[in-house]
Amino acid sequence: MSAQCTDHCHTPTASTDPRYQCILWIALIVNAAMFVVELGAGLSSGSASLLADAIDFLGDAANYGVSLLVLAMALQWRARAALLKGASMLAFGVFVIGRVAWGAWQGITPEALTMGSVGLLALAANVGVALLLYAWRDGDANMHGVWLCTRNDALSNVAVMLAALGVFGTGRSWPDLVVAGVMAALAISGGWSVVRQARQELAHASKENTPQAL
């Protein structure tokens, strides 16, 4: 589906397909549950990448909730929701950068076994959600943002598991911090992509709603 589709354009998108709404509810529940799991694991293990991933799960759960609210709304409102998603992804990236700096200053080595096992569980959760959302990855900015969040989460989970192997092999904290930094870069890149597309859709919707001069 084209991202420039107007409000009256009828395609098998989120606003007309109940399957997409069901998938968003599943994604919301999965992400909320994984936030609780990873938050506890991150605090107990001292892992910056797990804590970063936990906050990402929380942000995604909130984003899925916003998506459910705006599914049947006009393109302009969906684009505004996408702007919120993009901004939250950017904010997450900035937070993780700060957490990496703090971790480097403290020099605490995380627990590799907890990182690896929880990272594997998180990967299974995100891959499952990503497969469900795959068919809607090329929708408007709102749908595109949902897909990007889920895709980035799966990539981040793989990175957390690699970080666990690095921590286990070296006995140092730097693999955990490097992965957290990569996660920040993914969040910032994805957030900017969503913001850019949402702004284009807002501009398009504004032109559509502007009365033409006689």
Automatic annotation (TrEMBL):
<protein>
    <submittedName>
        <fullName>Cation transporter</fullName>
    </submittedName>
</protein>
<keyword id="KW-1133">Transmembrane helix</keyword>
<feature type="transmembrane region" description="Helical">
    <location>
        <begin position="89"/>
        <end position="108"/>
    </location>
</feature>
<feature type="transmembrane region" description="Helical">
    <location>
        <begin position="154"/>
        <end position="171"/>
    </location>
</feature>
<feature type="domain" description="Cation efflux protein transmembrane">
    <location>
        <begin position="24"/>
        <end position="202"/>
    </location>
</feature>
<dbReference type="GO" id="GO:0008324">
    <property type="term" value="F:monoatomic cation transmembrane transporter activity"/>
</dbReference>
<feature type="transmembrane region" description="Helical">
    <location>
        <begin position="22"/>
        <end position="41"/>
    </location>
</feature>
<keyword id="KW-0472">Membrane</keyword>
<feature type="transmembrane region" description="Helical">
    <location>
        <begin position="114"/>
        <end position="134"/>
    </location>
</feature>
<dbReference type="InterPro" id="IPR027469">
    <property type="entry name" value="Cation_efflux_TMD_sf"/>
</dbReference>
<dbReference type="Pfam" id="PF01545">
    <property type="entry name" value="Cation_efflux"/>
</dbReference>
<feature type="transmembrane region" description="Helical">
    <location>
        <begin position="177"/>
        <end position="195"/>
    </location>
</feature>
<keyword id="KW-0812">Transmembrane</keyword>
<dbReference type="InterPro" id="IPR058533">
    <property type="entry name" value="Cation_efflux_TM"/>
</dbReference>
<dbReference type="GO" id="GO:0016020">
    <property type="term" value="C:membrane"/>
</dbReference>
<feature type="transmembrane region" description="Helical">
    <location>
        <begin position="61"/>
        <end position="77"/>
    </location>
</feature>
